[in-house]
Amino acid sequence: MRPKTEYKRRNKTGSSPTSTRPTSPIGSDPTSSRTSPSSAALLDRGLVTEELAIFESLRISPEPNVNPRSFPYSVKQQCWEKAQKIKGRDPDRWRRDPLGNTVFRKLVGCPGCLCHDYDHIIPYSKGGKSTLENCQVLQATVNRSKGNRTELSKADLIQKSAYCRVSDRDMDLLELSAYGNVRRGQDSGGCNIQ
User: Ranges of Low complexity compositional bias (predicted)?
Assistant: First the structure.
């Protein structure tokens, strides 16, 4: 059996248990670590003054980073445009990377075989600039395998490609799910309705 314990009940006036604690006037107990409201305000003002001085010493650089690590949006657009087109496919949606891998515009940075990255030809860590001349669309898997190495040959990179065979029907389904429609390139060879 459990021993009986006595529980204190709140008194019926509704006061909280904290109001029954003994309190000492501020400053009467020399061992008390409490400070008076006026000294606390002085401490707060001193802290605010310190932080304000630190804040005012901060300066925002007037010039933006001239060589950001990631490519600006306009460079990515132009980089996509310079990648090889796929015959019969909308060039705004489909391209080939320099190794011949098919990539889909909507799939960026994922590990699949149709995914792509905007790659620094000369790695950023080795002084490569984030410019159009140093940009290429590259299958994401190959880009991750390449890292910042420049000594890899084209044959080595092709071996690192995530190969997948994609039929026209597969491409149509991807386009339909991503864009809601299927568009063919002007060179598709099909009939044009006038």
Answer: 13-39
Residues in the chain: 194
Q: What single-letter DSSP state applies at residue 137? A: E
The gap from C-alpha 161 to its chain's centroid, in whole angstroms, comes to: 24
pTM of the model: 0.62
Beta carbons of 86 and 96 less than 8 angstroms apart: yes
- Ramachandran bin of 44, using left for φ above 0, alpha for ψ from -120 to 50, beta for the remaining angles: alpha
Q: What is the 3-state secondary structure (H, E, C) of 9-39?
A: CCCCCCCCHHHHCCCCCCCCCCCCCCCCHHH
List of residues 6+ apart from 90 with CB closer than 8 A: 175, 183, 184, 185
- If phi > 0 it is left, if psi is from -120 to 50 it is alpha, else beta; for residue 132 that is alpha
Structure tokens at 61: 């650089």
Give the whole-angstrom CA distance, residue 132 versus residue 80: 10
* Other beta carbons less than 10 A from residue 93's beta carbon: 20
Residue 135, pLDDT above cutoff 80: yes
- The amino acid at residue 113 is C
Answer yes or no: are the C-beta atoms of 117 and 138 closer than 8 Å.
yes
The position carrying tokens 């909308």 is 90
